[in-house]
Amino acid sequence: MDNFIGQLKESLHKGFIDSSATMLETYKPELLINNREKNETVLATLLDELENCNTFIFSVAFITESGLASLKAHLLNLKSKGISGRILTSYYLSFNNPKVFKELMKLDNVEVRLTDSPGFHAKGYLFDNGEYSSVIIGSSNLTMNALKVNYEWNIKLTSHENGEIVKSLNQQISTLWEESIE
């Protein structure tokens, strides 16, 4: 535990105080973009986080068939590991196709709810890893273009399980979740 806290402090120092600091790269804050030259995508980070989490929550305004298809096999594989998650989405601007909801309902290890919160346009991904959580917040909805093609800005942060940011996010999601429909 003390080693983890030390690494987390080093990552915060590098990410927010001194970019030249040397440290393990595991928990450092990152700007995630889709970068073809470096073969980096937001999707790759999401898949890495899914492979290492205990549970996950996605809060996204929009989901496309291609965006879901890029994750569906991985979400099904997580079921065999006993990993479950939640996806909170909306019918904001009538963007989401009902076919996407039908496909989501086929995932036994994923609960899905719709919020009718006015103007819901959130884009956040929360991965619980036990004593810490990884959070990705930014501009990427669950669409193939947002996850692999578009110029999107997303920030990835790591927080101790007792960190205020994780507690605040969980509170926000819990409130919306309880007010949402299956």
Overview of the molecule:
The chain is α/β, with parallel strands linked by helices and 182 residues long. Helices cover 38% and strands 23% of the residues. The protein has six helices and seven strands, in the order H-E-H-E-H-E-H-E-E-E-H-E-H. It has a seven-stranded mixed sheet, with helices on both faces. Helix 2 (42-52) packs parallel to helix 3. The longest helix is centred in the middle third of the chain and has 16 residues, at 65-80. It is globular. It starts with a helix and ends with a helix. The mean pLDDT is 88.
Draw up the topology in text:
Blueprint: H1 2-16, E1 30-32, H2 42-52, E2 55-60, H3 65-80, E3 84-90, H4 98-104, E4 110-115, E5 123-128, E6 132-138, H5 144-149, E7 154-160, H6 164-178
Parallel strand pairs: 2-3, 3-4
Antiparallel strand pairs: 1-7, 2-5, 5-6, 6-7
Task: Identify the quaternary structure here.
Answer: single chain
* N-C termini distance: 38 Å
CA gyration radius, whole angstroms: 16 Å
Low-confidence runs of at least 5 consecutive residues: none
Mean pLDDT: 88
Share of residues in helices: 25-40%
Biggest sheet layout: 7 strands, mixed
State which percent range the strand residues make up.
15-25%
The count of helical stretches stands at 6
Q: Encode the helix/strand succession as letters.
A: HEHEHEHEEEHEH
Specify the structural class: alpha/beta
Number of strand elements: 7
- The rough form would be described as globular
Biggest sheet, strands in spatial order? 1-7-6-5-2-3-4
